[in-house]
Amino acid sequence: MNKQRQKIVVVGLGYIGLPTASILATRGHSVVGVDVKESTVATINSGKIHIVEPDLDVLVRSAVNSGNLKAVLVPEEGDTFILAVPTPFTQKSCADDKIPDLSFIDSATRSIAPHLREGNLIILESTSPVGTTEHIAELLAELRPDLVQSRAGSRSQLSVHLAHCPERVLPGHILRELVDNDRIIGGLNRASAEKARDLYKSFCNGGMHLTDARTAELAKLVENSSRDVNIAFANELSMICDRLGINVWELIELANRHPRVNILQPGPGVGGHCIAVDPWFIVAAAPKEARLIRAAREVNDSKPHWVLERVRSKAERFKNPVIGCLGLAFKANIDDLRESPALEITRELIRSGIGRVMACEPNVEEVRDDFPIYDLSQVLRDADILLVLVDHEEFKGIDRELLKEKVVIDTRGVWR
Ligand SMILES: NC(=O)c1ccc[n+]([C@@H]2O[C@H](COP(=O)([O-])OP(=O)(O)OC[C@H]3O[C@@H](n4cnc5c(N)ncnc54)[C@H](O)[C@@H]3O)[C@@H](O)[C@H]2O)c1
Prior knowledge:
Order of helices and strands: EHEHHEEEEHEHEEEHEHEHHHHEHEHEHE
Shape: elongated
CATH class of the largest domain: Alpha Beta
Distance between the termini: 55 Å
CATH topology of the largest domain: Rossmann fold
Mean pLDDT: 95
Bound molecules: nicotinamide-adenine-dinucleotide
Strand content: 15-25%
Number of strands: 16
Largest sheet: 8 strands, mixed
Radius of gyration: 24 Å
């Protein structure tokens, strides 16, 4: 058993909260996982999982069977509270900017407030706009004035510790990365950061980098914005090359021969629920300064429309074209369709009625009731236009002879 066994309350049992709660439980902590969804709580208590992540089912089963993990609907007292709830953006209208939606963090904070005791540690793991950890402290001071300590001559302070430790795991590798990745630990004060570090030490092998909460919040947003800006550059190049009649894949390969140049690969847009979301939190906080970050978002968001225009113009030469969409996931060799530009493009092609659409996604059996999924061989046989949207392994080895009579639009450079 863990020497510093704690009682830990993890609020939000999704892709981040459930693996974290399970690892903590298997390391000997007593963990209470909280979720607002009754079905999620019931599934976890039966030792099963409601999300797709390799090996997580085995870990959850063992955590629940050991008695160290239970799921509940309402928080209870503990030593440490970890918040891992969603932080999406909201948009009043298409013309308005996207702004962070902190309602999940607010309700999670309200739900733990009655159960806090002096000396508790609260860790915000959700990706958050700068100032969110301070915002939680202010909300707690309102909800629990008994936890506010007034000090003569200095600012009053909460008698609980508060830190932001952003999560940077890659879906598909969450269990390994939770343990191996470096951690940024931003405390509202030094004591909070140190207390959070002690907890992470009980299950993390990566380096622990202590800082203040605001820097930690911005660091996570900047990591994803950096990726977004670099992808936008590649996407912009692909559109420039198309106008100038130059092969973008060859161009990038040649430019990358320069010892200090490393251009990424273009695609049909940017998907997933981090890179396409987090940069907006910076734009919302510093709209005048974040010009490049905003432009990158706009370039990446516009790419699916550009791809659709390319298909439309090629389709004009056919009477009733059959359009084969190869790939729906947001990146190669996974089944995750969340915020996928490939899915957005396929749906839009179906809506537009410019031809018959045959979608092929080797990693998915069905897309709810939306549209059928076809075998690759059927699509290769019947399609007049082949639109490559994801660079899945299955597409790479296709016999080029089968493409001879087809119009090919390859957004990923699979058949460059
Ligand atoms: N999924 C990733 O790969 C990833 C990676 C890094 C960071 N993040 C960040 O981590 C945070 C959580 O993301 P996720 O992917 O785990 O989300 P998720 O949607 O998979 O899970 C969130 C869970 O929180 C629950 N929930 C919502 N409000 C609640 C409340 N008030 N009390 C209790 N439970 C509540 C939901 O029912 C859901 O089960 C987000 O800020 C996200 O940006 C996610």
